[in-house]
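Please produce the structure of this protein holding S-adenosylmethionine.
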Amino acid sequence: MAMPEQNGKLYVVATPIGNLSDISQRALDLLQSVDLIAAEDTRHIRQLMQRHGITNKLTSLHQHNEAEASKVLIKKMQQGLSIALVSDAGTPLISDPGLPLIKLAHEAGMMVSPVPGACALIAALSASGLPASRFMFEGFLPRTSSTRKSFFHDKLDCPYTWIVYESSHRIQATIHDMTEIFPGQRPIVIARELTKMYETIINTTISQATELFEQDKNMLRGEFVIIVAGAKAEDKNKDISIEHEKLLRTLLKECSIKSAVAIAVELTGLKKRTLYQAALKLADSP
Ligand code: SAM
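Below is the modeled complex.
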């Protein structure tokens, strides 16, 4: 579709996720030259602008006003104004507001142009050491333990790397819930405070991650990206979760392998073959 000459452009501008130097020269030039910056939190973007000596007009566009604010911004673009959309950190729309504005802009035949830069999930994945050729981003995890566990159940056999965002309030509970569903040896990467002073990237297993959070309370602070390795085809239906392993161990102390497996099938709903293989392994190891 031909773009009407008089329309302004909408730029979707990525901003840093911690280190204020992580922004491109093109992004800085645009933040200075557009007619208006639509920001998730105007106070937040001001810090970045001050750091880079940028002065420009700001308007707020956040999840609570974006339906209405987007219509106003489209009108301004129809009058020829160019607008930069920014969120508090990283790439707009990635677990951040902006979708209504961009949809309206496309519907109105306006030019929408990305100005790429930082994104926490991509930064974490690039340094994770886990396969990155195929992956799935799932945004923020559900907030309650039961819905999280059911989400993890659905992910158990996912064959490729998957990524979630998590806050400091829930990180420990989330990792604990994972131990109830996933085999303890499943590789996981915890990427914390990326590009900031206390940046920590730990490539470990789910069972070791639990210990880590129990031992080092400093690890509970900050912002987190969690990356989980996909299930290997040969592991499918072979490994059991840490909680199920604990149950099986307890049963094996009291009964024969056959009885322990029968009781565990009743209690967990897992396949007899899976539990039998796990019981054999446990019986072999002290
Ligand atoms: N739009 C952002 C992006 O492009 O990554 C994400 C915004 S979302 C509201 C914020 C979440 O991203 C945080 O709760 C955390 O899970 C993740 N995140 C943002 N900055 C981070 C950082 N420096 N280190 C680790 N995780 C970060």
